[in-house]
Amino acid sequence: MTFSVAFNWIIALFSLVPFIRFGDDWKKSLQLPPKDTRVRTSDVTSTKGNEFEDYCLKRELLMGIFEMGWEKPSPIQEESIPIALSGRDILARAKNGTGKSGAYLIPMLERIDLKKDYIQAIVMVPTRELALQVSQISIQISKHLGGVKVMATTGGTNLRDDIMRLDETVHVVIATPGRILDLIKKGVAKVDRVQMMVMDEADKLLSQDFVVLIEDIISFLGKGRQILLYSATFPISVQKFMAKHLHKPYEINLMEELTLKGITQYYAYVTERQKVHCLNTLFSRLQINQSIIFCNSTQRVELLAKKITQLGYSCFYIHAKMMQEYRNRVFHDFRNGLCRNLVCTDLFTRGIDIQAVNVVINFDFPKNAETYLHRIGRSGRFGHLGLAINLITSEDRFNLKSIEDQLVTDIKPIPGSIDKSLYVAEFHATNPNCGALELLNW
Ligand SMILES: *[C@@H]1O[C@H](CO)[C@@H](O)[C@H](O)[C@H]1NC(C)=O
Ligand SMILES: *[C@@H]1O[C@H](CO)[C@@H](O)[C@H](O)[C@H]1NC(C)=O
Ligand SMILES: *[C@@H]1O[C@H](CO)[C@@H](O)[C@H](O)[C@H]1NC(C)=O
C-alpha cells in the first residue's frame, strides 16, 4: 500500500466520523418544547428518580418522549413501564393528568414489531375526545420510530372511511367499544394477533352500557394477550372484570384518598366583622405548630396577611395571581418551617401534605364539598391528627350543612376548651385535663 492510499483511507475514516454517534450526542438534535413551570402535585412528582433511559427503550422512541417535553417518568410511568414491557397484566389506579397515557403508550410502542403489518395493540377508551387525545400523543411519541401506524376509530364518524383505512397497515387501534366491535364483527379489523389491550378510564368502560361490548371484544383477541387496566375508581364492575379476565395482575395504586380521619372539625358562628378578632383569639389560645388559613379571594388573602402581621404573628401568603416561581418558593419555605402561618386561596388539588400543619382555618368557608376536602383532608399516609376550624357567617349556614351531609362528617360547634391530644403531636393524653385549653369568649 502506498503512502497516498493509506492517507486516503485515513481521510475516508475521518469523514465517516460525523455519521457515527457517540454517547448522548443524539440528544443535542432534539427539538424540545419550552419547559412547563406550573406547580406539580405529588402524584406527578414523588418519583423514585428513574430515567426514561433506564428502560432500555429504542432510541427513536426516547427521542419522541423527550420531544414531548417529558423529562423523567412520572410515578405511574415508573410503576407501569417496566412491568408492561415484561408482558404482565396491570391493574392501575390513576387519574388523568398524571402521565397515564405515557404509562401504557411507551411500553406499547416499544413492543410494536414494524415488520408485521397487522394490528398488535388496542387502546379502549370511553369517549371520542379521549381517543383523539391518546392517538395524538401516540403519533407524537412514535414520530421517530419510522412507520408505526396508529388509527383512531370512534362512533359518530364515517364507517366506510375506517373500513378503507383498515385495508392498509395498522399497528395500533385506539377505539371506543361500539365502533371497534362493529369493525371486528364485519371481519374488517382483525384482532386475533393483538398482544396488548389497554383499557383507559376502565371504570367508565365497564359501566353497564359498555361492559357487554368489552367482553365481546376480548373474546376475539388471541390467547396470551396482555391487558393493562387503568381506572380512577374500583367499583364492583371493575373488580369482577379483573377476576375474570386478568391474569395475576400487577397492582398499582397511586391514588391516596383524602380523608378527614383524625381531623377534629369545629365551626364558630361569627359575623364578617368578628372574623379577625376570632382569628386572633385562636392564635392566642391554640397550640399551633403550623397553620394554613384559607380565604376566598386574592384580595382577602393580602388583606388578612397584613392584619395578621399587624397582630404580631408571622405569616406568609400565596394566591393564584402571584408568579408561579415566587409562589413555589414561598410554599417551599413554609414547608421548611420558616414561618408558622400561611394565608392562601385554594391552591392545593391534592390536600395538604405538610405534616407540621396541625391547624387549618377556613377564614372564609368554601362553597362546595370538594374544596372543603382538599383544604382539610389529608392523604392519611402519616395518620396524623389535626384541627380544622371554620368561621361561619349566616350566609354559610346552608353550605355548612350541605358539606357535612355530602362528606358524611361531623362539624361540631367549637367547645369552650379543646383537648390538646386532638391535635398536638407531642402531647400524650395521659392526663387530658392538663391539655384542655380555655377558649371562652366566643
Ligand atoms: C379526567 O378524568 C375524569 C374522571 O375519570 C373525567 O371525568 C374527565 O373528563 C377526565 N378529563 C379529561 C381531560 O380526560
Ligand atoms: C368571600 O367572602 C366574603 C365574606 O364572606 C364575601 O363578601 C364575598 O362575596 C366572598 N367572595 C367570593 C368570591 O365568594
Ligand atoms: C412543628 O413545625 C416545625 C416546623 O415549623 C417542624 O420542624 C416540626 O417537626 C413540627 N412539629 C410537629 C410535631 O409536627
TrEMBL record:
Organism of this sequence: Oncorhynchus mykiss (Rainbow trout)
EC number assigned by the record: 3.6.4.13
GO terms, molecular function: ATP binding; hydrolase activity; RNA binding; RNA helicase activity
Domain Helicase ATP-binding: 81-252
Superkingdom of this protein's organism: Eukaryota
Catalytic activity: ATP + H2O = ADP + phosphate + H(+)
Occurrences of domain DEAD-box RNA helicase Q (ranges): 50-78
Broad class of where this protein is predominantly found: cytoplasm
Gene: LOC110531058
Protein name (database record): RNA helicase
Family: Belongs to the DEAD box helicase family. DDX6/DHH1 subfamily.
